Amino acid sequence: MAIKNKVQLITYPDSMGGNLKVLHEQLQKHFTDVFPGGIHILPPFPSSGDRGFAPLTYLEIEPDFGTWEDIRAIGEQFDVLVDLMVNHISRQSLYFQDFLEKGRASGYADLFITLDKIWENGEPVGADIEKMFLRRSVPYSSFSTLGNGGEEKVWTTFGKTDPSEQIDLDIHSPLTRQLLQSFFENFKAQNVKIVRLDAVGYVIKKLGTSCFFVEPEIYEFLGWIRQMADSLDMELLPEVHAHYSTQYKLSEYGCWIYDFILPYRVLEALTGRSNAELYSYLRTRPHKQFTMLDCHDGIPVKPDLDDLLDTDKARELVDICVERGANLSLILSEEHKAADGFDVHQIRCTYYSALNENDDAYIAARAIQFFTPGIPQVYYVGLMAGRNDIEQVEKTGEGREINRHNYTVEEIERGLEQDVVKRLMKLIRFRNTYSAFDGVFQVLDAAPDEIRLLWEQNGKYCRLFISLQTYQTVIEFVDEEGRPATYQV
């Protein structure tokens, strides 16, 4: 299939009305011409943690959210994108529970990475672990197994509990590949068009490396999974938070990639009122990307912008966001912090709050995103120009809840009446329908406190102008009658 060059929505299955059926109703009522590019439905599967990212299976939908029939119905009107956590599965899954019950005698035992697959005697070595890019203090968990009356240590890259809820899969095992294929085949049957490979950078575990995006082994796995997706006429979107050079390698390999650099660069330009870093980036970035400003995690910083940041200036921007209510996700591994100790992984806040809830600045940010080459995605909280949900953070103790508010139907109706949301919806419709966005892109020369971007095709053009002093945003374009027109965004 071909991915549509239109705007997509990102939402949890229960964040726009409470379940998939109501989500579909809201999409039909308000957004059919707003998100013709598709809908990224964050994990709707049964899960034991991490708000869907510790899935028990991909063969079922969490009953509280709805059924596969709801997914298929949405897929009739919108290209549906779902996540597949290729790196791990829930410890509550029937696969891992069978392993705990039967030990190595389980038919599913080879799905998992017992430590003897890494170290010859199964005992972890600290010097090896120090080289790894860690997401928890140690990359494994200990479990008691009934099958051999003893203990098993298995690899767990992620998880805030001990033992972790997210058990890594051994992607070298034929059993794992058979399981992944069954998940893909089910997605195809359920009208899913695009699969995001979540945490794919962590699938290779190899001693002496960071165990993150290990080359060349990662390409063998990507080649295998891409061949399978191609056979099912499905698109893949690898999700990799890494040094930008890693993203560019994926792009050169032919993959769609995420533009995890753009959110920071746009925020930096609007806050610092300078186009310097943003312009430098826009002139060199690959075009085959999905663009975003906000998502269910946070605004990426490290390692996505490693070697691109002045850490002193980065600290200033981070401090501004914290003053506006943000909280931070930090890098754990000393080896992967900056030389001066800078350790911010992500800035967690709504993008609207990061811009001090300034409507004009927010619309300017979206205009830059929509003019940047790629497939634009808008997170549901960003769609509603949502503010930081400090109350939910305090209630749950989870910093990411700051940008995960669940909207009732009534809140959606009220949100759509906001002037800033009306302006955003109009801008999205322009991005979806103006033909020049399929043409040639240029970054135009501009004063340091201005943004000027251009798209041209077959005599049509649209030229974006933004004043970084006032956040005034204007689009000049050729209208349906071929006459010059101006759109004050």
Walk me through this protein's architecture.
The protein is built from 16 helices and 20 strands. It is an alpha/beta fold and 489 residues long. The strands form 5 sheets. It has an 8-stranded parallel beta sheet with strand order 9-8-3-2-1-15-11-10. A hairpin with a 6-residue loop joins strand 16 and strand 17. The protein is globular and about 75 Å long.
Topology at a glance:
Layout: E1 8-11, H1 20-30, E2 38-41, H2 68-77, E3 80-85, E4 88-90, H3 94-102, H4 126-130, E5 140-145, E6 150-155, E7 166-168, H5 174-189, E8 192-198, H6 217-231, E9 235-238, H7 244-252, E10 257-259, H8 262-272, H9 276-282, E11 289-291, E12 299-300, H10 311-323, E13 327-330, E14 344-348, H11 351-354, H12 359-371, E15 375-379, H13 380-383, H14 390-396, H15 409-416, H16 419-433, E16 440-443, E17 450-457, E18 460-467, E19 473-478, E20 484-488
Parallel strand pairs: 1-2, 1-15, 2-3, 3-8, 8-9, 10-11, 11-15
Antiparallel strand pairs: 4-7, 5-6, 12-14, 13-14, 16-17, 17-18, 18-19, 19-20
Helix pairs in contact: 8-9, 8-12, 12-16
Low-confidence stretches: none
Number of helical runs? 16
How many strands, what sense, and barrel or not for the largest sheet?
A: 8 strands, parallel
Shape: globular
- Cα(first) to Cα(last) distance is 33 Å
Beta-strand percent range: 15-25%
Percent of residues in helices comes to 25-40%
Q: How many beta-strand elements?
A: 20
Mean pLDDT: 96
Instruction: Give Rg in angstroms.
Output: 23 Å
Structure classification: alpha/beta
